[in-house]
Amino acid sequence: MTAPRPIRFFHQGQLKSVTGLPPTTTVLQYLREHARCAGTKEGCAEGDCGACTVLVGELDADGQSVELRNVNACIQFLPMIDGKALLTIEDLGASDDLNPVQQALVDCHGSQCGFCTPGFAMTMQAIYERHQAQGTRPDRQALADDLAGNLCRCTGYRPILDAGERMFDAPARTLDRAPMVAALRTLREDPPLQYEASARDGSPQRVFAPRSLEDFAALRESLPTARLVAGATDVGLWVNKQQRELGDVILTGRIDALRRIEAGADGTLRIGAAVSLEDAWAALSARVPALRELWLRFASPPVRHAGTLGGNIANGSPIGDGAPALIALGARLVLRRGPATRTLPLEDFYLDYMKNALQPGEFVEAIEVPRPAPGTRLRGYKLAKRYDSDISAVCAVLSLRLEDGVAREPRFAFGGMAAIVKRAAKAEAAVNGRSWDEAAALAAAQALREDFTPMTDLRASAAYRERAAANLVRRFWLETRANAPIDAGSASVWQAVNLQRSVA
Q: Please, what is the angle between helix 158-166 and helix 100-107, to 10°?
């Protein structure tokens, strides 16, 4: 353990040093209550509405530039931006010198009540910066996908999307990153963060942010009851909504060894536990294009930028969308305690509702995803009340290998159907070794009744879940059958709606 020190980051053109604030002070609370930057708004305080969107910058691998990503300030704890750059609406153009994003919003009447506008502007700035760096220009659908984490009740989104297109018409004017690079290089020389202050209830609380995997493993082994925090996209709600205290906290976001994606000689994809959801899903989708829609509908871009795949898996929500995809792909977890590691199939990791196979002092080091075998057919389906940024009622990722028209090695993984994400063993047995035809699909759909007894809640009734899951098995057959398979997009009501909108 290192000596305690302040939280240090770059904000408004200078290095900031913070002491004395409770460790679970959110970035939003710091901005509004301490930095007096009231442009960033509080809406939902749970990462859903995007009113609090800010940009967080980190040095790239070679330390020559800064990567900026939009995140929700309401569920980011202040220690999580130690060593980083924080940009808010105040860092864009002034009222008498608007930048291209702001000017486009004005010209296209992209604001009415204005409460959500700072968040939209910050997301649009992230889009603008990325495409200017790449020399590209997004189409309207790409803009809509990138803006999925920002909600507005006034404008109907059309003028905001108009502004997103218009902002690229003006002469390019990107943010000056040189001061950020210089500051972040200075901050990189700081020792790993150990921050100590009183929690909100007055009890002492410590936050550790180790940078090496070995230090993290040793710290976790010595503090087995400390709360591991990756992106805080769920833990942040514990604090904001349930008023829970976390005790000692260990952050995983500064450990480079956990933030790598590597491909092995045998084609296995190794995804470090601290790889962001956005980067992890991009890698999975590049390997298995059928997962692209599930990637785009997995939460919102700000949540995907902050959250991690390892955190999503370790959290183990029965309605999480990561586990069904990884289980269908035959993923394995690398678990570590001190210097010792073991490998466990992901499907064996979940024991019961919010209970897993981690031993005291153990943590998820990586997720290993084998390359799909030749002839594999896989599809991912997410059913929710909203298309974007919503929690699944049912998530199904279905896979099998076709060999001369016969189904082999089926892996049908479902979320939202039980207390844990799990495979449908009876449905798999109903098709394994059979011709992959309509009768086999019907047998699998019927067998789901033996696999699951879903519950009724606010998202869906048990009857809906049963029927929807069975229908998804049939849809999977329609899309993967040997003769005249249908195009996946033609079976998606959402893609049909988007097509009608584009024609209109």
A: 140
